[in-house]
Automatic annotation (TrEMBL):
Its main location: nucleus. One of its GO terms (molecular function) is histone deacetylase activity, hydrolytic mechanism. It is an enzyme of class 3 (hydrolase). This is histone deacetylase. It catalyses: N(6)-acetyl-L-lysyl-[histone] + H2O = L-lysyl-[histone] + acetate. Residues 167-188 have a biased composition (Basic and acidic residues). Signal peptide: none annotated. The keyword Repressor applies. It comes from Punica granatum (Pomegranate). The lineage of its organism: Eukaryota, Viridiplantae, Streptophyta, Embryophyta, Tracheophyta.
Amino acid sequence: DGIDDASFTRLFKTIISKVVEIYQPGAIVLQCGADSLAGDRLGCFNLSIDGHAECVRIVKKFNLPLLVTGGGGYTKENVARCWTFETGVLLESELPNEIPDNEYIKYFAPDYSLKIPHWHIENLNSKSYVGTIKMQVLENLRNIQHAPSVQMQEVPPDFYIPDFDEDKQNPDERVDQHTQDKHIQRDDEYYDGDNDNDHNMEDA
């Protein structure tokens, strides 16, 4: 509870850098949940919008294809502030702190500003505790030997439906469902012989 910008972004940068090194992703999907902002109705962190956006900057610097989505956040005016500010970060466009007049401006009273102030919440995360978390995560990542990859595999045998000769089929033997399904004929399909729809149309 109460983690601040400095503690959070330092931890985030160290861990996400190692994650990218180990996994070697071809693209990143970054979910920017805003419930870690100070003053969130349900969250218990104490991040400013600047601190939250710094994590976006860190990921953006990897220069990988990046899809950024929303997520949690239960103080709606701060969620709107956060995602507006971070859209500016992604587009490398600096936005003014003063929110322009709009039909929702009343939600941003009394200061009508884009950024939110820090709350006076005690940071319950000591340096040693944060250090322990970092070491545990890095140790877990070290146990991952290789970056994941997509491998070519044969089609599983469950999808294979063998052909069979109906004339040779013993009527006393049960036919499995796959085999029965293979011989279902739809009226709108094309067949050789008398069942062909085109053939019937030509005869008409």
